[in-house]
Task: structure prediction
Amino acid sequence: MGVGPHPLPWPEDSRYDPELLEAGDRRNVVDRYRYWLMAEIVADLDTRRHGFHVAIENFQHDFNIGSVVRTANAFLAAEVHIVGRKRWNRRGAMVTDRYQHIRHHEDAQHLKAWTATNDLVLVGIDNLPGSVPIETNPLPENCVLLFGQEGVGLTPEAHAACDRVLSIAQFGSTRSINVGAAAAIAMHSWIGTYARIPE
Ligand SMILES: C[S@@+](CC[C@H](N)C(=O)[O-])C[C@H]1O[C@@H](n2cnc3c(N)ncnc32)[C@H](O)[C@@H]1O
Result:
């Protein structure tokens, strides 16, 4: 994956990293960021981040959290929030977390307080009783999408903290889908409603 050393002459732009220009860039980044310094990529992303945040409960070091973070990077979430244990399983993130702003909250109450202070709607994503379908209830533009953990789902505390809870319609026999898949569907629902899609 990636590109080799940059041919001479090198571009004269301070966003480029001389070490990458010399050695090549093997990172998992889109072509427009090839050879850029990581800080410059983050700064550029910061100029166009979307209005949704992603939050996930973290108690079991679940490897799915990394996958959620990677999708949050792909869809350019404003921030990622880890709720519960501070240390989370980065394996599935494939280093995408370095381009993301990650904030830790010790519990759902702290997340709720932070969300209210920042004028965001806290939207739980789960198929718990009382949830309404995401397909017919559009997400608010400025929101935090809160996901539970694989296996247990949203904790009662997190469920109670949510301003509303949306479910993803299912039609088969399984009780639920994988949280990484659910997160991708929910984020893409926001994208389908609000993002400017380049032609
Ligand atoms: C594997 S699910 C488990 C919880 C689920 N409430 C149950 O009864 O089995 C883990 C997480 O994935 C997400 N999820 C899975 N299926 C979902 C669905 N149909 N609608 C919304 N979220 C879903 C939610 O964030 C949930 O907390």
Residues 68 and 180 are 5 Å apart (CA to CA).
